[in-house]
């Protein structure tokens, strides 16, 4: 049986932060499933940086089907979870089914990869207390409020938790996550 990885996301997730790990993990031989609040066609967004703007801009991105609803996920069937960013984490952190899923990964010390605004979800399950993390730099105070030590760098590994700032850091993020996966959840 192939080792399975779960990606948890929803509408308004950053396109690259869902699809890059989805494709990269499949390339490594993992079976990857995308879970969302409901089985549906998800609408992702593209965040980009433009001269003259004080923050990133948002444009419509790719669409992609969710394989599972959060209520259908058996966390025990998955070796690791990926938590993309974008705007999706702002509302997904209120989903009790998703909080149960994420909590189970932390409770069993399974690998967790989070990027950009994704740590808003892991903070909602008290998964960051005492941990070293990075996130989108504007979340530094949120990470500190969640009990984490914030580091503004491409990727931070704290045990089985691997975090990154945003899609420009994908290579460092996935290299670090794959190193953890090869130890804790190798492809079978």
Automatic annotation (TrEMBL):
Query: DJ-1/PfpI domain: from which residue to which, for each copy?
Result: 4-179
Return the NCBIfam families for the record.
PfpI
State the name under which the record lists this protein.
DJ-1/PfpI family protein
Instruction: Tell me which stretches of the chain form a coiled coil.
Output: none
- This protein's source sits in the domain of life called Bacteria
InterPro entries, A to Z: C56_PfpI-like (IPR006286), Class_I_gatase-like (IPR029062), DJ-1/PfpI (IPR002818)
What family classification does the UniProt entry report for this protein?
Answer: Belongs to the peptidase C56 family.
- Which Gene3D superfamilies did the record assign? 3.40.50.880
């Amino acid at each position: 049986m192939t080792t399975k990885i779960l990606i948890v996301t929803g509408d308004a997730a950053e396109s690259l932060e869902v699809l890059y790990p989805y494709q990269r993990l499949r390339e490594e031989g993992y079976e990857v499933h995308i879970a969302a609040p409901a089985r549906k066609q998800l609408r992702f967004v593209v965040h980009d940086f433009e001269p003259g703007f004080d923050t990133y801009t948002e444009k419509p991105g790719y669409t992609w089907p969710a394989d599972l609803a959060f209520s259908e996920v058996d966390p025990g069937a998955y070796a690791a979870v990926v938590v993309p960013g974008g705007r999706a984490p702002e509302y997904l952190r209120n989903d009790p089914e998703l909080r149960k899923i994420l909590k189970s990964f932390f409770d069993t010390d399974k690998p967790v990869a989070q990027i950009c605004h994704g740590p808003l979800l892991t903070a909602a399950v008290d998964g960051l207390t005492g941990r070293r993390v990075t996130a989108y730099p504007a979340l530094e105070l949120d990470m500190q409020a969640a009990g984490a030590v914030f580091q503004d760098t491409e990727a931070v590994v704290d045990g089985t938790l691997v975090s990154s700032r945003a899609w420009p850091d994908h290579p460092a993020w996935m290299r670090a996550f794959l190193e953890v996966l090869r130890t804790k959840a190798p492809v079978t």
